[in-house]
Design a protein that fits this description.
Helices cover about 40% and strands about 15% of the residues. The chain has about 600 residues and is an alpha/beta fold. The protein folds into three domains: about 170 residues, 3-Layer(aba) Sandwich (Rossmann fold), CATH 3.40.50.970; about 170 residues, Rossmann fold, CATH 3.40.50; about 180 residues, Rossmann fold (3-Layer(aba) Sandwich). α1 runs parallel beside α7 and α16 runs parallel beside α23.
Length: about 600
């Protein structure tokens, strides 16, 4: 036999290595491993059984079994927001997949890199209204960066890799991969790295130099500039660059609800949070500025108030990695499409050149802003009903725990108080549902954050309404040794809705009483519920007991802790700019309504 049939391996003629044959399910697992995924959250069902069958015989990826698929989605969000990595949520077809929809929409609104993997019925049954069939690709298309349907095992590696790339590049966001049951069961060669073909997907990260120069020139000429910082700065990992730019220019900084921690609260240039419940200095700095440099913010209605009257005398530099956001709400004088980290770094250099090392003359501007800070410090009134002030409780949680912790909030009054009264000194310390405003976010998000950052203290600051939507994940925390701390700010009502009813509906509190804090009828009793879930349950009704309860929670790390803080239902979030009203309302209120100062 001729030896030519067996050529000797050389660099020019390497040995042929056949790709490993894997099932589609095995290819999902291997792809996740190759992408560096170490933790996933999910709940099995019929259409995803093949994946779970292989998941149990591997050790590379930790799976957290949740009690509801929405919990898996929010946990994956919390994992991503706390770590900057991709969060992964897994569900079966039909209701399993649709239970992920709220978390997917939440991630879409807040630019969270989320990979949702769902099982689908057999490909030959699609379109027949088969058991637990739902067109999850169609359902989620408006709330994802992209949604994929996989019907062949050989397509799995490239699809998972493409989904990961889309979720993490440009403006981060959720991507869904729906995989039929036969694609999970069938086998195909596993090829890695796969060829990724995404026609038309070309995120812009490097901005045009002339636009950067134009922004720097406007900055040099401005007398009342403000850096309007959004969550995009955190997603881009641009907080160090932001600090350098702010200190080089001396310009005041405001950080939106999604950007809390992007700039240290303790920094003298920080004016606080703008918007509906922002500080007076932050709100009026934007409203009266002559130059807004928006960095990773989208001019959300909760910040602008009546958009047509927002910052009427300001020129606008709008920096965003998503070109669709530029001039969507406010026309930008200098539009800059690019990654915030790169853009800010370029702007620092351009500013140095344009200013020739000279300092901006902002003395008059800062004198005015310091006056607002002195006149309108953030504060609260003590309740008159004998119950605790919720602001005090939240403030003490922050003070006793410190800035290295992670704080996840639900949605409502407690969310705003947590944004206002806890001091944030670093990015990824504050997690909340900003755009979608999803009640039930806090507990599973805190759980995900604790999985991502096991050495940090993680608080879920929740309301009694929010807590009842996802508290079943306490079981997940107990069984999986995820010792989060839960502070229920229990005002026995849907507090933010009740506040609006008090202010705008003549005090008609229609269906907002939850009966969770009434001594005679506590439904449910949160302390007993905590005990049933294997957590430490504590109830606090007096201000003098707050510190001891928080300290006990901080000392307890062998199980979750739930503290039921029974607080006043009459406490309100102040300041407040009513929806659809100009931010100048704050100016009007401080001049014409003495009771505003009292609140």
């Amino acid at each position: 036999m001729s030896t030519d049939a067996f050529p000797v391996p050389t660099k020019k003629n390497p040995p042929t290595i056949e790709p490993e044959m894997l099932t589609g399910s095995g290819a999902v697992l291997r792809s996740l491993k190759e992408l560096g995924i170490t933790d996933v959250f999910g709940l099995p069902g019929g259409a995803i059984i093949p994946f779970y069958d292989e998941l149990m015989v591997q050790d590379d990826i930790r799976h957290i079994l949740v009690r509801h698929e929405q919990g898996a989605g929010h946990a994956a969000e919390g994992y991503a927001a706390a770590s900057g990595k991709v969060g992964v949520a897994i569900a079966t077809s039909g209701p399993g997949a649709t239970n992920l929809v709220t978390a997917i929409a939440d991630a879409y609104m807040d630019s969270v890199p989320l990979l949702a993997i769902t099982g689908q019925v057999f490909s030959h049954l699609m379109g027949t209204d088969a058991f637990q069939e739902a067109d999850i690709v169609g359902i989620t298309m408006p709330i994802t960066k992209h949604s994929f349907l996989v019907k062949r095992a050989e397509d799995v590696p490239a699809t998972i890799a493409a989904a990961y790339q889309i979720a993490t590049t440009g403006r981060p966001g959720p991507v869904l991969v729906d995989i039929t049951k036969d694609a999970q069961q069938n086998s195909a060669p596993f090829v890695w790295p796969p060829k990724i073909d995404l026609p038309g997907y070309r995120p812009i990260t490097k901005a045009h130099g002339k636009q950067i120069q134009a922004a720097a020139q406007l900055l040099v000429e401005a007398k009342k500039p403000v850096f309007y910082v959004g969550g995009g700065v955190i997603r881009a990992g641009a907080t160090a660059e932001l600090l350098e730019l702010a200190e080089a220019t001396g310009v005041p900084v405001v950080t939106t609800l999604m950007a809390r921690g992007a700039f240290p609260d303790s920094h003298p240039q920080h004016l606080g949070m703008p918007g509906m419940h922002g500080t007076v200095p932050a709100v009026l700095s934007l409203q009266e500025s002559d130059l807004l440099i928006s960095l990773g913010a989208r001019f959300d209605d909760r910040v602008t108030g009546k958009a047509s009257e927002f910052a009427p005398n300001a020129k606008v530099v709008h920096v965003d990695v998503d070109p669709a956001e530029i001039s969507k709400i406010r026309i930008a004088d200098v539009p800059i499409v690019g990654d915030a980290k790169d853009v800010i770094a370029d702007l620092i250099k351009a500013y140095a050149d344009a200013s020739a090392g000279a300092k901006l003359d902002l003395d008059a501007w800062w004198e005015y802003l310091h006056g607002l800070q002195a006149e309108f410090p953030l504060g609260y009134s003590e309740p008159t009903d004998g119950l605790m002030a919720p602001q005090y409780v939240i403030q003490r949680i922050g003070e006793l725990t410190g800035p290295e912790a992670v704080y996840a909030a639900g949605v409502g009054q407690h969310q705003m108080w947590a944004a206002q009264f806890i001091k944030y000194e670093r990015p990824h310390a504050w997690l909340n549902s900003g755009g979608a405003g999803t009640m039930g976010y806090a507990v599973p998000a805190a759980m995900g954050a604790k999985v991502a950052e096991p050495d940090r203290v993680v608080w879920a600051i929740d309301g009694d309404g929010c807590f009842q939507m996802t508290n079943q994940e306490l079981a997940t925390c107990t069984i999986n040794d995820i010792p989060i701390k839960v502070a229920i700010i229990n005002n026995s009502s849907l507090g933010m809705v009740r506040q609006w009813q008090t202010l705008f509906y003549d005090g008609r509190h229609s269906f907002t009483d939850l009966n969770t804090g009434h001594e005679t009828r506590m439904v449910p009793d949160f302390v007993k519920m905590a005990d049933a879930y294997g957590a430490l349950g504590i109830r606090v009704t007096k201000a003098e007991d707050v510190d001891a309860a928080i300290k006990l929670a901080l000392e307890t790390n062998d199980r979750p802790v739930v503290i039921d803080f029974v607080v006043s239902a009459d406490a309100m979030v102040w300041p407040m700019v009513p929806q659809g009203v100009s931010n100048s309302f704050v100016q009007y209120a401080k001049e014409h309504a003495p009771e505003w100062d009292e609140e």
